[in-house]
Amino acid sequence: MERTFLAIKPDGVQRGLVGEIIGRFETKGFTLVGLKFMTVSRELAETHYGVHRERPFFPGLVDFITSGPVVAMVWEGDGVIASARKIIGATNPLNSEPGTIRGDFAVNVGRNIIHGSDAPETALEEIALWFKQEELVSWQPQIMPWLRE
Ligand code: DAT
Ligand code: MG
């Protein structure tokens, strides 16, 4: 089953949006399989955002992600990687559609509330980077027959 890595960034936590954000993925019908509340080390932040290492915003991005606790999560479901990206919305919240998390709750690209893996390869890499295998819980929600035929 497809899995993706999502993280509520320090701004989402500080603004009290944890429940609201988790609820959106829960009520959509995806399955939570990993969850931890943690402070991010600089090493983890720099690895996670390694693809952006040469970009001018990289130092500020690492400072931001390490500035307070985050909620790291793994969610499971058919098509969850692309669907979660749609639920999250465009990178710049001023371009994110209303109804998306960034569209509803954010106004600045440097404070865009939540991270989501952008492709199957990055999802695998990010899940392995943030979670140990034994921290992930494989389970079948009892409501599954009401979610998929
Ligand atoms: P996304 O988080 O939508 O996958 P990304 O991978 O291109 O976006 O960039 C990672 C994060 O870096 C993004 O969530 C916010 C920050 N960022 C991206 N572009 C930026 C910019 N032009 N100025 C400031 N921060 C930026
Ligand atoms: Mg990205």
UniProtKB/TrEMBL annotation:
Keyword Iron-sulfur attached: no
Catalytic activity: a 2'-deoxyribonucleoside 5'-diphosphate + ATP = a 2'-deoxyribonucleoside 5'-triphosphate + ADP; dZDP + ATP = dZTP + ADP; a ribonucleoside 5'-diphosphate + ATP = a ribonucleoside 5'-triphosphate + ADP
GO CC aspect terms: cytoplasm
HAMAP family listed in its UniProt record: NDP_kinase
Active site: H115
Encoding gene, per UniProt annotation: ndk
Record protein name field: Nucleoside diphosphate kinase
InterPro entries: NDK-like_dom, NDK-like_dom_sf, Nucleoside_diP_kinase, Nucleoside_diP_kinase_AS
Subcellular location: Cytoplasm
Molecular functions (GO terms): ATP binding; metal ion binding; nucleoside diphosphate kinase activity
Residue sites binding ATP per the record: K9, F57, R85, T91, R102, N112
Subunit structure: Homotetramer.
Alphabetical keyword list: ATP-binding, Cytoplasm, Kinase, Magnesium, Metal-binding, Nucleotide metabolism, Nucleotide-binding, Phosphoprotein, Transferase
Single GO BP term: GTP biosynthetic process
Top-rank EC class of the record's enzyme: transferase
SMART domains documented for this protein: NDK
Pfam family membership, one: NDK
Gene3D superfamilies (alphabetical): Nucleoside diphosphate kinase-like domain
Main location as per UniProt: cytoplasm
CDD domains in UniProt: NDPk_I (cd04413)
